[in-house]
């Protein structure tokens, strides 16, 4: 049995916060705003996983009105959802992600992000692909107002 899911998320920049993408803290002059640590890529992956098992979205499981999730580590949120995925009998087939950011340059951090995502999804790094693109200075990402991320996930069940 196979199931597919897709995710998309956006967070705007905010001064005075660390920039955390894919569970890795990336040196940059500002971070992203959010109720949690605002890890736009891990939120996208969480949504893709939830979509694949037909379980709604991240906000349904971890409402941004709940103080319990204030400044939450998004890796912990993804681990909880991945436990649900595993309980349903699914493992990772593969995941492909895109981070849309004018800056910072993501390429020096891609391998560390892929390794961290693989660890969170109990998979091999060869099953995880993370890409980055600018939006050629167009739109909110191009104006460096925020960062967007997309993911497509394939789950497999023996
Ligand atoms: N934040 C980013 C954006 C892009 N990259 C890398 O640069 C390549 C070219 O980007 P274009 O938007 O001009 O297509 C892209 O393929 C990435 O390898 C990056 O590292 N960080
Ligand atoms: C993760 C949660 C919960 O802390 O908060 P945010 O960091 O604001 O993230 P978002 O992608 O808007 O949606 C899910 C939220 O409920």
UniProtKB/TrEMBL annotation:
Gene Ontology biological process: isopentenyl diphosphate biosynthetic process, methylerythritol 4-phosphate pathway; terpenoid biosynthetic process
Needed cofactors: a divalent metal cation
Enzyme Commission designation: 4.6.1.12
Q: Which reaction does it catalyse?
A: 4-CDP-2-C-methyl-D-erythritol 2-phosphate = 2-C-methyl-D-erythritol 2,4-cyclic diphosphate + CMP
Q: Which GO terms describe its molecular function?
A: 2-C-methyl-D-erythritol 2,4-cyclodiphosphate synthase activity; metal ion binding
Q: What organism does this protein naturally occur in?
A: Sporosarcina ureilytica
- The keyword Transcription regulation is annotated on this UniProt entry: no
Function (record text): Involved in the biosynthesis of isopentenyl diphosphate (IPP) and dimethylallyl diphosphate (DMAPP), two major building blocks of isoprenoid compounds. Catalyzes the conversion of 4-diphosphocytidyl-2-C-methyl-D-erythritol 2-phosphate (CDP-ME2P) to 2-C-methyl-D-erythritol 2,4-cyclodiphosphate (ME-CPP) with a corresponding release of cytidine 5-monophosphate (CMP).
What does the record note on quaternary structure?
Answer: Homotrimer.
Q: Where is this site: Transition state stabilizer?
A: 35, 134
- How is its cofactor bound, per UniProt? Binds 1 divalent metal cation per subunit.
Primary gene name: ispF
Q: Does the keyword Oxidoreductase apply?
A: no
Q: Which InterPro entries match?
A: MECDP_synthase, MECDP_synthase_CS, MECDP_synthase_sf
Q: Pathway of this protein?
A: Isoprenoid biosynthesis; isopentenyl diphosphate biosynthesis via DXP pathway; isopentenyl diphosphate from 1-deoxy-D-xylulose 5-phosphate: step 4/6
Gene3D superfamilies assigned: 2-C-methyl-D-erythritol 2,4-cyclodiphosphate synthase
User: Which keywords does UniProt give here?
Assistant: Isoprene biosynthesis, Lyase, Metal-binding
- Entry's family note: Belongs to the IspF family.
Amino-acid positions noted as binding 4-CDP-2-C-methyl-D-erythritol 2-phosphate in the UniProt annotation, renumbered to this chain: 9-11, 35-36, 57-59, 62-66, 133-136, 140, 143
Listed binding positions for a divalent metal cation are 9, 11, 43
This one is known as 2-C-methyl-D-erythritol 2,4-cyclodiphosphate synthase
Q: Where is the 2-C-methyl-D-erythritol 2,4-cyclodiphosphate synthase domain?
A: 2-155
């Amino acid at each position: 049995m196979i199931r597919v899911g897709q995710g998309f998320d956006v967070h705007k920049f905010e001064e005075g916060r660390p920039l955390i993408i894919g569970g890795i803290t990336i040196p940059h002059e500002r971070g992203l705003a959010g109720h949690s640590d605002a890890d736009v890529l891990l939120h996208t992956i969480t949504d893709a996983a939830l979509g694949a098992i037909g379980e709604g979205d991240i906000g349904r499981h971890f409402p941004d009105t709940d103080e319990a999730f204030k400044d939450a580590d998004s890796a912990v949120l993804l681990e909880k959802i991945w436990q649900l995925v595993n309980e349903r009998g699914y493992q990772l087939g593969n995941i492909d992600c895109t981070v849309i950011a004018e800056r910072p340059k993501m390429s020096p951090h891609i391998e560390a992000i892929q390794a961290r995502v693989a660890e969170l999804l109990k998979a091999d790094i060869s099953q995880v692909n993370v890409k980055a693109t600018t939006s050629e200075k167009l739109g909110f990402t191009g104006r460096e107002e925020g960062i967007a991320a997309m993911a497509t996930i394939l789950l497999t069940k023996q």
